[in-house]
Every structure is written in structure tokens, then in C-alpha cells.
Inverse folding.
């Protein structure tokens, strides 16, 4: 990643990441659609080629949503013993919606933290 020479006041990476905003200026949108990262910020022109959230957000989403949905499903089964179709109608849509929302939020947060901490791919110093 090249050194950022623009002079912008620092923004809170958690705030801009959770809102899906540019990690440099805090105003431009970070995403094109649901999960696609824009090539560059429409406001400040930041090149988003450095942004590589990888599998990090997906792992957190699986753990968080799995804990919530499995816990609620077990509670419902133990207390009310509903039919299988009730579980399917409740937990599949809930899991889908929560996953899409949380994945976007955590991906924005990871990208904002990458920018803030100048994170880049590891390199071996051969010098």
C-alpha cells in the first residue's frame, strides 16, 4: 500500500466501519451494493485496492449468529417442543437476515481498521 499523502482529520475507524463509510474522509460510501467494495471513494478519491477483509468477518459472523440462533432454537425446543416446520420457518430467515447485515458491518469495520493501522500483506525482508 502506498503512503497516504492526503491531509484529512483522523476519523474513528469503528464509527466509519460500522456505517460503511470511507476510512479516510468518513463521508464517501465504502460499498457498491451489499458487499462489493468500491474501487475508490467518491468524495476523497481514496484507492480502496488495499482493502482485503478476507475471511475474518465471515468467521466472526458464523460464531456470533451460530451462538444466537442455536441458543434460541434450543431454548424454544426445550420449553415448547414445536414441530420441525416451526423451527425451519423461524431460524432460516432469521439466520439469513442477521448474516447479511452483520457481514456488511464487520467487513466495513475490518477494512476501516486495516486503513487505520496501515495493515498490508506480510513481506519477507530480504535485505
Amino acid at each position: 500500500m502506498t503512503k497516504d499523502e492526503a491531509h484529512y482529520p483522523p476519523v474513528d475507524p469503528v464509527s466509519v466501519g460500522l456505517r460503511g463509510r470511507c476510512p479516510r474522509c468518513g463521508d464517501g460510501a465504502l460499498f457498491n451494493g451489499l458487499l462489493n467494495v468500491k474501487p475508490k471513494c467518491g468524495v476523497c478519491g481514496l484507492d480502496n485496492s488495499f482493502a482485503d477483509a478476507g475471511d475474518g468477518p465471515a468467521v466472526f459472523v458464523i460464531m456470533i449468529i451460530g451462538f444466537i440462533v442455536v441458543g434460541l432454537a434450543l431454548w424454544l425446543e426445550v420449553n415448547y417442543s414445536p414441530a420441525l416446520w416451526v423451527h425451519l420457518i423461524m431460524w432460516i430467515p432469521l439466520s439469513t437476515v442477521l448474516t447479511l447485515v452483520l457481514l456488511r458491518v464487520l467487513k466495513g469495520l475490518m477494512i476501516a481498521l486495516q486503513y487505520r493501522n496501515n495493515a498490508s500483506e506480510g513481506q519477507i525482508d530480504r535485505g
